[in-house]
Amino acid sequence: MKLHFKKSYFIYFIVLFITEVLIAIYLKSGFIRHTFGDVLVVILIYCFVKSFIDIRPIPLALSVLLFAFIIEFLQLFNFLEFLGLQHNNMAALILGSTFQVSDLVAYSTGSMLILIFEKLKH
């Protein structure tokens, strides 16, 4: 694992970030907001890290998945309330506020798509 800058992954990150922002602004409910957005967020984090660190796809995809799972499980324990951020809309948007098993499935799907993309790329 070494530091480097990969422009292609950074461009993917920027496109995904803009997509996530547009979803958050314009879609307040539905499949795209609640499921597709969760699939994309795992890919977004992967692309951000991959932009700066040279790391193999499987360890990074699993690390991002674990991170997403940890954030999701923290929602079971009212993590925002513990931090005193339960009324902060941005914190709730970024960290989430309710635990859902479907989110875990979406994160897993995003991780699988990363691995499929990386396999097809090589």
Largest beta sheet: what is the strand line-up?
1-2
The description of the largest β-sheet is: 2 strands, antiparallel
Q: Count the strands?
A: 2
Beta-strand residue fraction: under 5%
Distance between the termini: 19 Å
* Overall spatial form: globular
Rg of Cα set: 15 Å
Taken together, the total number of domains comes to 1
Q: Please give the share of residues in helix.
A: over 70%
Give the uncertain stretches in residue-range form.
none
The number of helices is 6
Class per helix and strand makeup: mainly alpha
Keywords: Membrane, Transmembrane, Transmembrane helix
Pfam families: DUF2809
Protein name: DUF2809 domain-containing protein
Transmembrane segments: 9-27, 33-53, 60-80, 92-117
